[in-house]
Amino acid sequence: MINHHILTRWLVGYEAQRKRMLKRAPSGPLRDFLSVPFPTLNTRFEQIPFLAVDFETTGLDAVKDKLLSVGCVDLQHQQITLASCYHEVIHTQGSLEANNVTIHQITDDQKDQGKPLAEVVEQLLNRLAGKVMLVHFARIERQFLRQACLELYGMSPPLPIVDTLVVAKRNLDKRDVAYDPSELRLSALRAKYGLPEHYAHNALNDAIATAELLLAQVCDGGENLELQQLIL
After folding, report:
1. Can you state the angle between helices 203-217 and 164-175, rounded to 10 degrees?
2. b (16+ CB within 10 A) / e for 191-209
3. Which of 66, 98, 133, 225 is the most exposed place for a label (fewest CB within 10 A)?
4. Strand partners for 76
5. If we measure between CA atoms, which residue out of 57, 62, 61 comes closest to residue 89?
6. Which domains does the chain have, with CATH numbers?
7. 85-132: per-residue pLDDT in tens?
């Protein structure tokens, strides 16, 4: 049975927002994104069109900080389509802080040669249309994409999201025992499922790593899962 809280949120939330915003969205990438319906709640896992997405940023505040790079890859029919991989560094003003560069390995020269934010967001929205955004730790991707859309189009679209961190947390909470929050890190969860180490803090690498983690998380009983059981 559908969780009535989720169903209500869906009916008066994502789909309702999409339809309302479509009526007043300016022509262009955002309107094209809003023109495509989201998958329904009863879509079975293997039929859900996911776009695994990861951002590298200059910080954690979507208003003050900037997007530095975007990586994404398609996941559908329980397969990651590597031919769909997209990775782009974004041009931003100012110099990057040394401690930030140490983490994401994007230099000032690289970001100075990056693509404009508008071009990268257009590509991302085009790839995301009609899909569910798959992330690890949704706060970053959700807030930074919404902020980018506000700056570019004057409005922030609804974003159906599945978060592998939340999937893991729900599973841990069912055990009703204490756990260390570090167990929810992408690298720790991948190790738990026997997935290989990956080169972290590269947006495309992390997007692929997140897609692999979701497949591992649902491998037992995944054929019976529906979107309503996974969505935020």
Report:
1. 40
2. eeeebeeeeeebbbebbbb
3. 98
4. 79
5. 57
6. 4-229 (3.30.420.10)
7. 999 999 987 766 656 644 666 777 787 789 999 999 999 999 999 999
